[in-house]
Amino acid sequence: MFSDIIAVPQDLRHLIWSQTRRSSGTTGSFLKSYDDFRQQRRYYKLSSFDAFHGITGHECVNELIADRLLTLFGFPHLHYTLISANIIIDSTEYHTWLCRSDNFRQFGERKLALDTFYQLERSAGESPLDFCIRHGWRTYLDQMLLIDYLILNRDRHGANMEVLQNPKEKTIRLAPLFDHGISLVFSCHDERSLRTFDVMEDRPVQSFIGSRSSRENLSLISASFWDDLLELHESDRFQILGGLELVLPEVYLDTIWNMIWRRWQSLESIRHT
C-alpha cells in the first residue's frame, strides 16, 4: 500500500558499512553504506548501532516520517524508502529496518558542508543566518526551521546542510533537506521512557542557524512565509504514520503523533499572533 515501505525482507548482506560522525549527546554509531543500481548510486543508513546491543534505535523510521511531513507541506527534500533487510556487520548477520535514498547531486556537482563553505566565504562579522540570506536561501531556512521545530530535530549542525557547487556551470545551491533521524522520540527505547517523555519540552538542539532552542529559532522565520504555509490536519495522521505499525508498536506511533500535532497547534498560535 505504501510505496515508501518495503516490508518483504531484502537480502542486503553485500553492503559494507562504515561509521559516520557521531552527533553530540547520542549513543552508538550511525552506519552508512551505498551501492550502484543501474549506474545510479543509492545510499543506505542504519539506526543507532553498537557492537554489544546491535541495532537499537529507530532513527530510520524518523527519516521516513520527516520525509512524509515535508512532502505534505510541499518543501523540497531528500526522499527515503524504509526497507526490511538482512545485513552483515563485522561478520554478524542482523535483520533490521533501514532507509535508502538516492544521490541528490547532479552531474558535475561537488558537495561541501555549509559550515565549511561559510568559513571560506563569509564577510567579516556575518552570521550564518545573514550569510544564507545573502545567498538567496531564505525560504529554505524558513522551511527547515519550521520542520525542525515540529519534529524537534536535535541535529541540524553545519554538516547536515550541504552546498552543491558545479564549477563548470558556475552554479551553487543548497542540497535538499536531509538527515532528520535524531528527532521525535529517538531517545525512547521502552514504554516507560515514552510515558515520561514531554513532547513539548524545548530540549537543547544543535543548530548551525540560530540558537540551541528550536522554539526560539521560530522567531527567525520571515513573516511572509506563514501566509502560504499549508495546514496540517488530524486526518493527516494516516498519511504520515500509515504502515509504520509494521515497524514500531502503536504506543510509539501514538506518542509521535501527539508530539507532531501538539507542536503544530503551538505553531498555529504563533502564526496567528
Report on the architecture of this protein.
This protein is of the alpha+beta class and 273 residues long. The chain has 2 domains: 5-102; 110-271, Phosphatidylinositol 3-kinase Catalytic Subunit, Chain A, Domain 5 (Orthogonal Bundle). Helices cover 27% and strands 23% of the residues. The protein contains 7 helices and 13 strands. The strands form 4 sheets. It has a 6-stranded mixed sheet with strand order 1-7-8-4-3-2, covered by helices on one side. It has a 3-stranded antiparallel sheet with strand order 9-11-12. 30% of the residues are buried. Mean pLDDT is 93; it is low at 21-28.
Number of domains: 2
**How many beta-strand elements?**
13
Question: What is the helix tally?
Answer: 7
> Strands of the biggest beta sheet: in what spatial order?
1-7-8-4-3-2
Brief overview:
The protein has helices at 59-73, 114-121, 128-134, 138-150, 191-195, 237-241, 250-271; strands spanning 5-11, 18-19, 31-37, 40-45, 49-50, 54-55, 81-89, 92-102, 110-113, 155-156, 162-166, 171-174, 206-207. It has 273 residues and is an alpha+beta fold. A hairpin with a 2-residue loop joins strand 7 (81-89) and strand 8 (92-102).
From the structure above, extract its key features.
273 residues, alpha+beta, Phosphatidylinositol 3-kinase Catalytic Subunit, Chain A, Domain 5, 2 domains, six-stranded mixed sheet, three-stranded antiparallel sheet, 7 helices
